[in-house]
Amino acid sequence: MTASSSRSAEKAAALYDQRYAERYRAHDDTLTDSGPYLGFVSWLQRVCAQFKGPIDALELGCGTGRYFSALPNVRYLVGLDASADMLAMARTPYRAAAITAEKITLVHGDLFTQPLDDTAFDLVYSIGVLAEHAPFNRDVAARVLRLLKPGGRFAFSTVHPESPSIRKTMARRIGRIAATIPGPFKRLLRERLLSGGMYADEARIDEVLKPSFEIESIERFISEAHLHCLCVARKA
Question: How many Å apart are CA 25 and CA 203, to the nearest integer?
Fold first, then answer.
């Protein structure tokens, strides 16, 4: 586990306390007609439809279980989150009656320290966590790779570095221009624009995942908060 990953897990556990978790769960109940939420749901349903039979799935940063009901054809679902208070809300998730998973296990922990069986999952997915609250990097990709069965899929969202939600400081404006100019500082400037993996565009996703994953799709998606990349990648 990298130091940055450890700090992200600790920060999430501190941020998503009981009061925050209760507000977050209350917001879930307002999502019935939310275009961005329904967009994420539709995307997850398309991902699940690519599998021929019932699957075992792991959600990284499941929070209150907001997306549990979006998954068709799931035999076993594990929801992993660093916040015990968010997981407490996930025991009574949004649209609980619509959940079709045969079994759900909620796990308090993080991707790197929580014991999880290798090649245990057909699908590992994450929305609103990687390259947003936790860095998206090769350590994450390697850990997910070990968890996936042969041919399994990794589906996740990132915050794109061009998202309108990111404050366009003068330093970022200059850095964006300078990063397009060939030279010894191009890579360094690009890394700073990506904030150590806290943002990720199509090129960064490709760089992190290949050659261990075959990228099946990358699309841009606008939520109520950010411009995202939605990626589906298959274990090579």
Answer: 34
For 37, 68, 99, the CA distances from 33, given in Å and listed in that order, are 8, 17, 18
CA distance 134 to 121: 21
Q: Is 168 exposed, middle or buried (0-12, 13-18, 19+ CB in 10 A)?
A: exposed
> Is the backbone of residue 196 left (phi > 0), alpha (psi -120 to 50) or beta?
left
Residue 61 structure tokens: 């940063």
Distance of CA 146 to CAs 49, 57, 215, Å? 23, 14, 17
Helix (H) or strand (E) holding 176: helix 170-178
Superfamily of domain 3-164+198-235: Vaccinia Virus protein VP39 (3.40.50.150)
Q: What mean pLDDT is predicted for residues 224-233?
A: 97
Sign of the C-alpha dihedral, residues 162, 168, 169, 173?
positive
Write the single-letter amino acid at 52: K
CA-closest candidate to residue 32, choices 90, 95, 78, 80: 95
Quote the tokens at residue 80: 């992993």
Q: What is the pTM of this model?
A: 0.90
Phi, psi of 148 (to 5 degrees): -85, 145
Q: What's the chain's length in residues?
A: 236
- DSSP for 14-57 reads HHS-HHHHHHHHHHHTT-TT-HHHHHHHHHHHHHHHTSSS-EEE
pLDDT in tens, 134-166: 999 999 999 999 999 999 999 999 999 999 999
